[in-house]
Design brief:
By secondary structure, the chain is an alpha/beta fold. The chain folds into two domains: 114 residues, Rossmann fold, CATH 3.40.50; 150 residues, Rossmann fold (3-Layer(aba) Sandwich), CATH 3.40.50.620. The protein is built from ten helices and twelve strands. A three-stranded parallel β-sheet has the order 1-2-3, with helices on one face. Strands 4-7-10 form a three-stranded antiparallel β-sheet. A two-stranded antiparallel sheet has the order 5-6. Helix 1 links the parallel strand 1 and strand 2. Helix 5 crosses helix 8 and helix 7 packs across helix 8. 35% of the residues are buried. Bound molecules: glutamic acid. Glutamic acid (GLU) binds next to loops. One of its GO terms (molecular function) is ATP binding.
Length: 282
């Protein structure tokens, strides 16, 4: 059993992160390993002070993990290799549409209502079919969802989180209409969250991905990529989201609930567990 916590160092850890890390750590405790991975592909938004704060907060909570910690910023070669493999299968194409072009295309009357899925606005397919030999330096690379589904064949994953517990099969119709041709590499990053997370979970031998319920739908994209890249499909555990007293889920920059702030105010790790409704620690 290998679980992981994969924060992006773009801000301080808040109660929602603490909950996610504690759940992942406890699921591995006694029967496997808990890994930490720093998701810092977006170098423009990541800061080393936040990375240092992540380590400090997690240690304070009582967690430990093997070193060295994987950093996505050092993994660009692995993402490039995965992209090349997908391109070799004919499921990747270069796209030069800008956000406003996509919005204009999907709001054209003949297109009907624009679908917004787990990856945002569903791309209308304007550039689909362009060869990789026509890729320009400013293009993004997209997955040709129709072709990818045919090549991948039927696929499913097992979910152990309470809300979605059970086996989930990929529904090609839903994938086409609600997900569409997702971006696999952003022009400025050389990869995307979806591609990086799939490549790295496999490289780290993660057998159960523990994360928030907000990423449940994205899992279908991840399983499709795992199938195309012949990577093992891990088990998934999507946990409840931590909300504020008004019922709103905590935002990335919810500094009012930052662990560092609770610590500065004299809270103990047991207080943090109580705040996220976890039973008292070991
Ligand atoms: N880096 C992602 C985040 O901070 C985590 C994604 C994942 O666990 O798959 O939201």
């Amino acid at each position: 059993m290998v679980t992981r916590f994969a924060p992006s160092p773009t801000g301080l850890l808040h109660l929602g992160h603490a909950y996610s890390a504690l759940v992942a750590w406890e699921r591995a405790r006694g029967q496997g390993r808990f890994l930490l991975r720093i998701e810092d592909i977006d170098q423009a938004r990541c800061r080393s002070v936040f990375e240092a704060a992540i380590f400090e907060d997690l240690r304070w909570l009582g967690l430990d993990w093997p070193e060295p910690v994987m950093r996505q910023s050092t993994r660009m070669g692995a993402y490039r290799a995965a992209l090349e493999r997908l391109a070799g299968m004919g499921v990747v194409y270069p796209c030069r549409c800008r956000r406003r072009d996509i919005q204009a295309a999907v709001s054209a009357p003949q297109e009907g209502a624009a679908a917004i899925g787990p990856d945002g606005l569903v791309y209308p397919g304007t550039c689909r079919g362009r060869g990789m030999d026509r890729a320009g330096p400013g293009d993004v690379l997209r997955l040709d969802m129709g072709r990818a589904l045919v090549l991948a064949g039927p696929a499913h994953f097992v979910e152990t989180g309470a809300r979605f517990a059970g086996e989930h099969a990929l529904d090609p119709e839903w994938m086409r209409s609600q997900v569409g041709d997702v971006v696999l590499a952003r022009r400025d990053l050389g990869t995307s969250y979806h591609l990086a997370v799939v490549v790295d979970d496999a490289a780290q031998g993660v057998s159960e991905v523990v994360r928030g319920a907000d990423l449940f739908e994205a899992t279908f994209i991840h399983v499709l990529l795992q199938r195309l890249l012949a990577l093992p499909v891990p088990r998934y555990h999507h946990h409840r989201l931590i909300r504020d007293e008004k019922g709103k889920r905590l935002a990335k920059r919810d500094d009012a609930r930052a662990i560092a702030l609770y610590r500065a105010e004299g809270a103990s790790p047991a207080d943090i567990r109580a705040l996220v409704n976890l039973p008292a620690g070991p």
